[in-house]
Write a structure and sequence with these properties.
The chain has 171 residues and is an all-beta fold. The protein has one helix spanning 19-22; strands at residues 44-45, 50-51, 58-61, 64-65, 71-72, 75-78, 84-86, 91-97, 105-111, 116-125, 132-133, 138-142, 152-159, 162-164.
C-alpha cells in the first residue's frame, strides 16, 4: 500500500507469497473480505446529457469574474489529496498530461454530446489519451499540482463556444 493506506475501488492489490508463508497451514486463518462503500451518484438527466459531480467537496471558487480582473473558466472544489476524481459522463480521453504548467496534471474528456470536461491539479492520472471511459470511472486522484497550494480539483465544462458554468450542469 502507498503512504496514505487508502484503498479505492479499482485499485489492484498484490499479496506476495514468500518463503515464510509458502508452506504455512491455512486452517486457522479467518478470511476477511473488504467491501468498498460506493454511494449512488446524484445525476441530472435530460435528453442531451446526464452529469455527476467529479468529486465531493466545498467550492473554493465559482465560475466567472474574480477579483483583480481575473476569470475562472470553471469551479475549484476542495477535497482531500488522493480522493478519487470521477468522469462526469462517458467519453474519450483527448488529453492526459502536464504540459500546461498552471493546471499541473490535467485530463480532458470529449463527451458524446460535443461537450468537453476538464480536470486539473491532479495528483495521479489513471487514464491515457485515446482511452474510452464510462461515467463514474475513476480517472485520477485529487492533488495540488500546478499553481495551487492546497489539494483541489479545478473542473470545467466547455462546448464549441467556450467555457460553461459547471454549476448549471451539475445536480
Amino acid at each position: 500500500l502507498k503512504n496514505n493506506f487508502k484503498i479505492y475501488e479499482g485499485d489492484k492489490l498484490f499479496i506476495p507469497i514468500g518463503k515464510t508463508n509458502l508452506n504455512s497451514k491455512c486452517d486457522n486463518i479467518n478470511k476477511t473480505v473488504a467491501r468498498i462503500k460506493t454511494e449512488k451518484p446524484k445525476v441530472l438527466s435530460n435528453e442531451k446529457y446526464s452529469y455527476m459531480w467529479p468529486v465531493k467537496g466545498k467550492i473554493l471558487s465559482k465560475f466567472g469574474l474574480l477579483a483583480k480582473g481575473l476569470r475562472n473558466d470553471g469551479i475549484n472544489i476542495s477535497a482531500d489529496k488522493g480522493k478519487p476524481v470521477l468522469a462526469i459522463e462517458s467519453g474519450k480521453i483527448v488529453y492526459a498530461g502536464n504540459e500546461i504548467q498552471a493546471f499541473g496534471n490535467l485530463i480532458l474528456i470529449k463527451h458524446y454530446n460535443n461537450k468537453t470536461s476538464a480536470y486539473a491539479h491532479l495528483d495521479r492520472i489513471n487514464v491515457k489519451k485515446g482511452e474510452l471511459v464510462n461515467k463514474g470511472h475513476i480517472i485520477a486522484l485529487v492533488g495540488n499540482s500546478g499553481k495551487v497550494s492546497i489539494p483541489q480539483l479545478h473542473f470545467e465544462i466547455r462546448d464549441k463556444n467556450g467555457p460553461l458554468d459547471p454549476l448549471k450542469y451539475l445536480p
